[in-house]
Amino acid sequence: MPSSLSSRRSKKIHHTFTHHIHPQACRTLEQHPKNMAESPITARTKDFAAWYQDVVLSGDMAEPAEIVKGCMVIRPNGYAVWEVLQRELDTRFKETGHQNVYFPLLIPQSFLQKEAEHVEGFAPELAVVTIAGGKKLEEPYVIRPTSETIIGHFFAKWIQSYRDLPLLYNQWANVIRWELRTRMFLRTTEFLWQEGHTAHSSHEEAKEEVLRMLDVYADVAENVMAMPVIKGVKTNNEKFAGALRSFCIESMMQNGLALQAGTSHDLGQNFGKAFDVKFQSKEGQLDYVWQTSWGVSTRLIGGLIMSHSDDKGLVLPPKLAPNKSVLVPIYRKDEERASVLETASKIAKEIGAKLDDREGQNPGAKFYHWERRGVPVVLELGPRDVASGNIVMKRRDTGAKEILPQADVAAKLPVLLDQMQKDLFASAQKRLKDNTVLANSIGEVEEILKTVTAEKGGGKFVMAHIKDDAVCDARVKEFKATIRCIPLQDEYDGPGNCIVTGEPVSHRVVVAKAY
RNA sequence: CGGGCUGUGGCGCAGCCUGGUAGCGCGCUUGCUUGGGGUGCAAGAGGUCCCGGGUUCGAAUCCCGGCAGCCCGACCA
Description:
The chain is 37% helix and 25% strand.
């Protein structure tokens, strides 16, 4: 099968070498003069978007499906990361009292139309099934873009009394949204996600739930993915179709672009009314339920990649790495092979490392192999180490090598992994801080953001006083930026006057270009 | 959905302008060799040149249509 994708990238590299011929490029070539078993990775500074593609492909994370527009195949390393993420999230969902459920993939078309804003928001991106079993369906089904409607239908069936509340459900599922422009993990036609759906007897309780789950997302993003986030509220203009309020976590990628990493919606009684989900209160009053929904998707993996990876390929934070460490044995002769492998397998077993005992591959080839797949720590064990009782330990992010006694590795490895996790978070946090700037006029904001692109980078989070008003959203959109969120916590200078309308606002908002 | 670029063994590419039976590097297989960052040698396998139509004695090459990918824009969780 042709890979037009790679060919395009490669062509770019070719152009760069022939036309510009900067010394750096030549040096890069000299470093890899021999067999390039796998494709080179475009440098971030050269073309961030191409770099991202290269990392996804060479990291064995995913590839474009090609035969299905806008869809991707999630490859073993990518899916393994997703499984770790799922586990981390799911554990927290359970801890906060939620149960997993599963609803149909197909939703009667009329359901979408019951909530006016919802249908308006999703209609353009629906895929619809009109024929099934060889016959035209009386009523078409839409393939779910999200499940508020079908779940609303069942909530109405299951809820009668305040005693049935709260209903705290979560669904792991795939959804389809017919997006016009797709990028692997960041926006694909079909994607995997979880969607939480809850129903409550009071707005207060629902709002608590919304913030609780936002906190769960922030916790996973920062403490598992090592990806710092800003918790905030979307402007009315940017909120979820059908919600009262949408909360989000926003993170900054290495090119300074924003990525919405998760959302939690206060649906109010909108879907309760649309699907007639009523309950009788303790006082005997009939009222509509207050609902929430919240979700994160495989997009998180895109964020993970663009947060930590480098020009050598994928970098995975230890807590998300399917293989935290890999041990590469090195040997020359058969008698060396036997003793090295014996020690290596003993150590690997002891510390839970994957032993790369593949034959016919040089150690060097193995190092490259694991490097571009983001394995946090690679251990090297050769005849010299067997003799001396040492082992070599190398971390992926800094490239630092350490020689230590084999007896110490079981104790040192977890410490190193922990340190790497912390360092990755710290450097991502530093980047966020370094690239966050204040602006006090809309012209200034525009000046900072107007030339920013996904390829060239240079993106910033611009903190400015801007009112939550459609006029302001439109003004910011003129230079292709958006108000990412109104932070829940003001870390700056408090109230000020809106730089578009002049009206007073409580604090600065985040303006940025985004994926 | 509009604009630009692209699609040739598994991967990266050349060939296309100026039509004449498809080539290179890497990978792959086998054997030997080598092994602390992509080891070397030898022999071999592998291709509907994205799909469909047209022009032509003859199409990877020219023309038309479609599909897919990447970037920009519009759209969008």
